[in-house]
Amino acid sequence: MAKCGFIGMGIMGEPMARNLLKAGHDLVIWNRSAAKTNALADEGAIVVGSPKEVGENSDYVFICVTNSGDVVDVINGSEQIQGLSKGLRPGMIVVDHSTISPDVTREIYADLSDLQVSLIDAPVSGGDKGAIAGTLSIMCGGEHDSLQEVMPLLESMGKQITHCGPSGAGQTVKLCNQIAVCINNFALAEALVFCTLNQVDPAIMLEAISAGAAGSWQISNLGPQIIQRDFSPGFKVGLQRKDLHLAIDAADSVNMPLLGTTLVDRMFAVAEGIHGSDAGTQALVTALEQLTNAEVKSSS
If you ran DSSP here, which 8-state letter would residue 89 be given? Predict the structure, then answer.
């Protein structure tokens, strides 16, 4: 069994780390807010006081934090944090599951290469349900041999693991995923509001279209939550907007306007104003409801 470290015990990180533990691996964990480590500590994980200590006590380190700056702080350290890089040894592999800038990923890759440490960028898709079930899609960038070495560990967390190319390619593909997801979410919201305004039960509409060409993860998972007025997060609006801004910035660097993505980001801004940044992304529908004086809910 492998000696694994995991940094970041959020909605995604905690269940992903738990699946490593369930697979029988030794697990050392750290989180900026120590209270979030309690559940896994009770299940057998060892809690340490810094990312540096995670590196010192692991052969493979997994990171799942919020943004580019957080990843840089975890690796390089800050006034409050002893950085992971100080605890790494030649030959180790770091796997970053965070969704961050492809350019920042490539910079980190170069810095870790100087330490003879490999970096795999491995952002994920599938939400908290996929993280819990171990069925995530994992999009990987980096060296083939390093990815093959950690593949058995990734397989305890995901069912679709794809080598997308060199460093940063995993992050690029994840941004492609976010573009498609957010526009699909917006299309679902439009369909639900349109259905409601035309006095058709949205539950019946979802049942009718889910088995056809319109069927999608968004319809199957978010559709029922919307008509039940359940806006609790599987993935938060604030994080979705962070990812969309990463995509828009990356597109700007290749002179591509993301027209649909930019529109959906503006609608997410309205939803964020209504519900706050911690609402689930299905709350996007409420931005359209506000424009149309509609409320989507099942009549059954």
Answer: -
Q: How much is the pTM?
A: 0.93
Told to judge if 174 belongs to the known catalytic residues of this protein, a careful annotator would answer yes
Catalytic residue chosen out of the listed positions 22, 86, 174, 242? 174
Among candidates 214, 248, 237, which has minimal Cα distance to 285? Answer: 237
CB-CB neighbours of 67 under 10 Å? 18
- Could you tell me which residues come within 8 angstroms of residue 112 by beta carbon, excluding any fewer than 6 positions away? 75, 85, 88, 94, 118, 119
Average of pLDDT values for 46-55?
98
Domains of the chain, first to last: 3-166 (3.40.50.720), 173-292 (1.10.1040.10)
Q: What is the pLDDT of residues 239-267, one digit of tens each?
A: 999 999 999 999 999 999 999 999 999 99
Provide the greatest CA pair distance for the chain.
64
Dig out the tokens for 1 from the structure. 């069994």
Question: Quick one: 56 exposed, middle or buried, by C-beta within 10 A (0-12, 13-18, 19+)?
Answer: middle
